[in-house]
Write a structure and sequence with these properties.
single chain; about 675 residues; alpha+beta; Jelly Rolls; Rhopdopsin 7-helix transmembrane proteins; Phosphatase 2c, domain 1; seven-stranded mixed beta sheet; six-stranded mixed beta sheet; 16 helices; about 20% strand
Length: about 675
C-alpha cells in the first residue's frame, strides 16, 4: 500500500517549488550610472483590488505576461477596465553608486498608478468613477527611494474602445527601465531629443501652415471681400490647432483633445470644399453652393456631437450606446468627407490652369485616402482589417522622420493650394487694377461732365452742390445757356451707384447737350431723351427734371418722376410721370410759373431725403421743409444731409430772382476729382 505515497507527496513538494519559480525576483546588477530594462515575464491579473499592491501578496497563480507588448496582443483582445502588473525585483548594490533608484515608465494605455513595496510612488491620470487619461501618451519618471528589493506593482485602467480602435491595446507597450535618478533623467532627455528629431518635418509643416494662416488672416482683414483668402486661412489654421491638441505633448485630457479635434478637422474639410468651388470656377453653380452649405452644416453638427461623446464616461452601463453613437456619427461625417470626389468631376470640361488641376488632383487623393483610412478603421476589432495601418505606415524615413502616403499627399495638397491661391490673387489683382483704371476713367469722364463753373444768368443768383456717395456718382445736373438769353437747367438721378451709374450719367449728359441744341421745350427734351435711353440702362432707370428759365422770370418745367422743386417754402405740384428708360413712348406735361423778385427755387435729388442717421431714421420730408424754411444755399443744404447721415448721392441747386440792377452770382461746390493721369 506504500506505492501511492510518492503520488500523494509529489504535489506537496512541487507546489511550493512552482510558487517559488513564479515569484523568483528579477536580479538587476551593475546599474551604476546606467539603466536596466525590467523585461521578461511579469505577473498579470485582470480586475482590480488595491490589496494587490502589497509586496507579500501570493501572485503565484497569476498569469505570466510580457512587458514589451499590450495585453490586447497577448490573449486579452478587446478587454477594457482595470488590470494589474507585478514584478519581484532585486537591485544588487554597486560600490560607490548612490542608493537612490528611479523608474522610467514608457507609454501605457491608459491611466495607471505605480507602487513600490506597497507604497504609491506616482500616477498618470485616473480611473473611474472620474476617469482622466491623455490622448498623447508620454513617458514618465518616478522615484523609488533607497529600497533595493521588493515588488513593483502597476495598476492600469484601459478606457473603453472607440469605434475606430482595433481592440489590440491595453497596458504596457514596452518594458519599464530602472536606474539612478541621473541615469533615468538622461534616458528621458534622450527620449525627448529623439522625439523632436523624428518630428522635425511635422514641426516644419505645421509652421508652414501657421505662417500661411497668419498671413492669410492679415490679408483678409485688409480686404474682407476676399473669400478665397478666408478659406485658405481656415484650411491652414485647422491642422495647426489639431497639432496643438494631439501632437505637441501637451497634457490635454483625452476627453478634451478628442472633443475639440473632431470639429477642427471638420473645419478643414469644409474650408477645402469652398476653396475648390472658387479654384475650380464652380462658384457660379447655385446647386453646388447649396449642397456645399448643407453638407458643411451636417459635417460640423456630426463632428461636434461625436466629439461631445468624449466628455461622457463610457465605462458605465451606457457603454454600448456611446460606442454605437460614435460609430453612427463617424459614418455620417466620413461619407460627407468624401464630398471633393463629387465636386471635382464638375470641373471637367472647364478650361483650368495647371495649378488648379493640381489642387483638384491632390484634393481627390487626400480625400480618398482619408475616407478609406477612417472607414476601414470602423469596427476593426471585429473585421480585423489592417488597411488603415498600411495607409498610416511610413513608406520611407528621412533622418528619422517618417513619410506615409497621407503625409505626402497632404503636403502636396497644401503646396498646390498655396501656389493656386497665389496665381488666383495675381489674377484678382490684375482684374482689380483694370477695375480701378475704369474708375479713374469714369472719374475723369465725370470731371468733364460736371460743370467746373456755372454760367452767369442775368437777374438770378445760382448755387449748386454735388456730393457723390462713392468715388463716382449717379446724380447729374447741367446749366445750358441758349442764344435767346434763356437757360436750360437739368437735374436727375440714375438708379444704382458706382461705375455703372457713372456710365449712364455720361450717356444722359451727352444726349441732353445734343437735344438742347435743337429743342427748348422741357417736355420735348424729356420725351426724346426717354426714347434714347429705353433699353440702354441695363434694367435701370433715371429720374429727371428739365427747367427752362427766361431772363424775365418765366419758368417752364417738366418732370420724369423726379422730386418736385420747392418754391420758397412750399413744394410745387407737378404732374406725375414714369422715370426715363422704362417705356419707349411717354408723354410729359409742362408746368409754367413766374418767378418774382425775391422768389427762390430749390432743386434736389432724393439723396437729400434718404439720408439716414445711426438709429436708422430717414431725413424725411418734414426735416427737409424745416431746412428749406431757413433759405440755405446749395452747400448748406447738402452739408445738413451729410451731417445727418449720407447714404446716396446728393445734388442741390438753388435759383433766386434778383432785384433789377442787382449783379448776378453763381456758386458751385463739387468734390475735387483727380484726373486719371494722376
Amino acid at each position: 500500500m506504500l506505492w501511492f505515497l510518492p503520488i500523494m507527496v509529489l504535489p506537496l513538494l512541487s507546489a511550493p517549488a512552482s510558487a517559488q519559480r513564479a515569484r523568483a525576483p528579477l536580479v538587476v546588477s551593475g546599474l551604476g550610472n546606467a539603466t536596466a530594462k525590467l523585461d521578461g515575464t511579469w505577473q498579470f491579473h485582470l480586475g482590480d483590488d488595491t490589496a494587490w499592491a502589497a509586496p507579500g501578496l501570493d501572485d503565484s497563480a497569476w498569469e505570466g505576461i510580457a512587458a514589451d507588448k499590450s495585453w490586447g496582443r497577448q490573449g486579452h483582445a478587446g478587454y477594457t477596465g482595470y488590470a494589474w502588473y507585478r514584478r519581484h525585483i532585486e537591485f544588487a548594490p554597486v560600490a560607490g553608486a548612490k542608493p537612490e533608484l528611479a523608474l522610467f515608465m514608457p507609454q501605457i494605455d491608459d491611466a495607471y498608478e505605480v507602487y513600490w513595496n506597497g507604497a504609491r510612488v506616482g500616477s498618470v491620470g485616473n480611473g473611474p468613477p472620474n476617469p482622466v487619461w491623455y490622448f498623447f501618451k508620454m513617458p514618465h519618471t518616478f522615484g523609488l527611494g533607497t529600497e533595493r528589493q521588493g515588488v513593483l506593482a502597476v495598476r492600469v485602467w484601459k478606457a473603453p474602445y472607440n469605434s475606430f480602435d482595433n481592440g489590440q491595446l491595453g497596458g504596457f507597450v514596452s518594458a519599464p527601465m530602472a536606474g539612478s535618478p541621473e541615469a533615468v533623467g538622461g534616458l528621458y532627455a534622450a527620449y525627448s531629443y529623439n522625439w523632436l528629431r523624428n518630428h522635425q518635418y511635422t514641426f516644419g509643416l505645421n509652421f508652414l501652415y501657421a505662417l500661411i494662416a497668419l498671413l492669410g488672416f492679415l490679408a483678409w482683414m485688409r480686404d474682407r471681400g476676399q473669400k478665397v483668402i478666408l478659406w485658405v486661412t481656415l484650411f491652414a489654421a485647422s491642422p495647426v490647432l489639431g497639432f496643438v491638441l494631439v501632437g505637441l505633448r501637451v497634457p490635454f485630457s483625452n476627453n478634451f483633445a478628442l472633443g475639440m479635434l473632431q470639429p477642427v478637422f471638420s473645419l478643414q474639410d469644409i474650408s477645402l470644399w469652398f476653396l475648390l468651388l472658387y479654384l475650380l470656377k464652380l462658384e457660379g453653380n447655385p446647386r453646388l453652393w447649396r449642397w456645399t452649405r448643407i453638407l458643411a452644416v451636417i459635417s460640423i453638427v456630426a463632428t461636434t456631437l461625436d466629439g461631445s461623446l468624449s466628455f461622457f464616461d463610457w465605462s458605465g452601463s451606457y457603454s454600448h450606446f456611446f460606442q454605437l453613437s460614435d460609430a453612427g456619427l463617424t459614418a455620417i461625417f466620413t461619407l460627407v468627407e468624401a464630398f471633393p470626389l463629387v465636386l471635382i468631376p464638375f470641373a471637367f470640361g472647364k478650361r483650368l490652369d495647371v495649378e488648379r488641376w493640381l489642387v483638384a488632383g491632390f484634393a481627390f487623393l487626400t480625400a480618398m485616402i482619408q475616407a478609406v483610412r477612417i472607414a476601414s478603421q470602423q469596427g476593426s476589432r471585429y473585421t480585423h482589417w489592417t488597411i488603415a495601418d498600411k495607409i498610416s505606415a511610413p513608406l520611407f524615413t528621412v533622418r528619422g522622420n517618417p513619410f506615409s502616403l497621407q503625409t505626402i499627399t497632404s503636403t502636396l495638397l497644401i503646396v498646390s493650394i498655396v501656389y493656386a491661391v497665389y496665381r488666383y490673387s495675381v489674377e484678382q489683382g490684375q482684374r482689380q487694377g483694370a477695375l480701378e483704371q475704369e474708375f479713374k476713367s469714369a472719374q475723369e469722364l465725370q470731371r468733364v461732365l460736371i460743370p467746373e463753373t456755372l454760367p452767369s444768368l442775368p437777374g438770378f443768383s445760382v448755387t449748386s452742390a454735388y456730393i457723390p456717395a462713392q468715388e463716382v456718382g449717379g446724380d447729374f445736373f447741367q446749366v445750358i445757356e441758349r442764344p435767346d438769353g434763356s437757360a436750360l437747367i437739368v437735374i436727375g438721378d440714375v438708379s444704382g451707384k458706382g461705375l455703372k451709374a457713372a456710365m449712364a450719367v455720361a450717356l444722359i449728359v451727352g444726349a441732353v447737350r445734343t437735344l438742347a441744341e435743337s429743342f427748348d421745350a422741357p417736355a420735348a427734351i424729356l420725351a426724346r431723351l426717354n426714347r434714347r435711353l429705353n433699353g440702354r440702362l441695363q434694367h435701370g432707370f433715371a429720374t429727371c427734371l428739365v427747367l427752362r428759365l427766361s431772363p424775365e422770370g418765366e419758368c417752364v418745367m417738366a418732370t420724369a418722376a423726379h422730386p418736385p422743386p420747392f418754391l420758397n417754402e412750399f413744394e410745387l405740384s407737378l404732374p406725375g410721370a414714369l422715370p426715363l428708360g422704362l417705356v419707349p413712348d411717354v408723354a410729359f406735361e409742362e408746368v409754367t410759373i413766374q418767378l418774382n423778385v425775391g422768389d427762390r427755387l430749390m432743386l434736389y435729388t432724393d439723396g437729400l431725403l434718404e439720408a439716414r442717421n445711426a438709429l436708422g431714421d430717414l431725413y424725411s420730408f418734414d426735416r427737409l421743409q424745416q431746412l428749406v424754411a431757413t433759405q440755405p444755399d446749395a452747400q448748406q443744404a447738402g452739408e445738413a444731409a451729410v451731417a445727418f447721415g449720407q447714404e446716396d448721392d446728393i445734388t442741390v441747386l438753388t435759383i433766386a430772382r434778383l432785384a433789377i440792377g442787382a449783379e448776378s452770382t453763381t456758386s458751385l461746390v463739387a468734390p475735387r476729382l483727380v484726373p486719371a493721369s494722376a
